Amino acid sequence: RIVTLEWLKSSSRIGEWLYFNKFEPKSLLNSNPSLNIYRKYRQQKKSIELFNQCGLIYITSIVHQRQLLLKLITLLGGNITINRNRAQLIVGQSSKILQIIVHPQVNEQWVIDSIKMGKCLLTDDYLIDNDNNC
């Protein structure tokens, strides 16, 4: 939960945790639509299945913050594979030039932006061109 400092102060004054809904920062929730999406899932006690429609996701070994991305994708319904050939989506630059790339290969920002938007984004703007080592 995201709450204001006033929630902590008020809870401390009365000696018990107050109900948090009155202390959520409305301006933050209104300015960030993905927070409302995740909040609704939590209220409905549903698991968040943001990446479950992406198929098997392979994260290359040279991705910055690899462990964090693995956790985020998994927590948000993604299925990770350690076999590049089985993947439907590859995240990150490859350490060697691949002759044939069958499935989209995207940069790490695709994961972050998808989480921010609360939906699995199209890969077109995030594609990596391995021939040029971009």
UniProtKB/TrEMBL annotation:
Residues 57-128 form the BRCT domain. It comes from the Eukaryota. Gene3D superfamilies: BRCT domain (3.40.50.10190). InterPro entries: BRCT_dom (IPR001357), BRCT_dom_sf (IPR036420). Transmembrane segments: none annotated. SUPFAM superfamilies: BRCT domain. Coiled coil: none annotated. This is BRCT domain-containing protein.
